[in-house]
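Reopening: THAP-type domain-containing protein still failing for me.
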Amino acid sequence: MDCILKDINKRRSTSKSNVNCCVYGCNAVMKKNPELLYHRFPTVDQTMLYTDAFGNKVRVKRRVLWVKNIKMGKPVRSHTRVCSRHFTEEDYITPNECKK
Ligand SMILES: [Zn+2]
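Support: Ran it again with your exact input. Result attached.
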């Protein structure tokens, strides 16, 4: 029992530097899944053109879109990361597309 407790304490002390995915039900941790990318949330002032359900192009805050898509229901903090499991190829914007 003593050993288990010590082990937990050890893990806690190193968890600060350990990155994990914030998405509910996802257990990706950088230590265990180094093959995944861990994305930080976009800053509050980053916007993008988004086509809504009616085909209208609207400028939205990227962070708002992320929160909506992930349905995380938790406040976004500076260390909050989302792993690449929740993105598709199309979600990645190349620098060329950003300039448009
Ligand atoms: Zn994830």
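The helical segments are 2-14, 62-70, 95-99. If you still see a failure, please send the error message rather than a screenshot.
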